[in-house]
Amino acid sequence: MIKRARDLYTQIDERYPTCVLIFRFLLSGGTSASTDLVLLYLFTDIFGIWYLTSAVAAFILAFGVSFTLMKFWTFGDHSQEGLHMQLGIYFLVAIINLALNTLLVYLFVEWAGLYYLFAQIVAGALIAIESFFVYQRFIFRKTSTV
């Protein structure tokens, strides 16, 4: 049964590689976003930390989950060559996204009156779209061997 599932996945991957890439991106991003949301909730509602401070801390902790899943599973980049450069650029993008995320959450909560968790979901979705293209085109792009 597992072999059949693996064979089916391989066939789908070969036939629809872009769809599989997007699926992996969404699953990896969803895992990272879930980590972020759970931590945001714990920090804010359980530990009583201000929601913006919580958002920053949760975002930073979810960074490790995100980089690992994106590099090795989503984009299938198992090379160790340039790992430090990738990590540095990924971190720079994460810091930019963190600032953007914090601004969006603030605007959605304070100006639009959204519940902070819903605001985080909306901000995260917007950032995910931008991130996919940055990761694919600049950080984990496949280099030609010709």
TrEMBL record:
UniProt keyword annotations, A-Z: Membrane, Transmembrane, Transmembrane helix
Gene Ontology BP, a term: polysaccharide biosynthetic process
Coiled-coil zones: none
A GO term from the CC aspect: plasma membrane
Domain GtrA/DPMS transmembrane: 24-140
Pfam families: GtrA_DPMS_TM
Bilayer topology annotation: Multi-pass membrane protein
Transmembrane spans: 21-43, 49-75, 87-109, 115-135
Location(s), subcellular: Membrane
InterPro entries: GtrA_CellWall_Glycosyl, GtrA_DPMS_TM
UniProt record similarity statement: Belongs to the GtrA family.
The name this protein goes by in its record: GtrA/DPMS transmembrane domain-containing protein
Source organism: Candidatus Kaiserbacteria bacterium RIFOXYD1_FULL_47_14
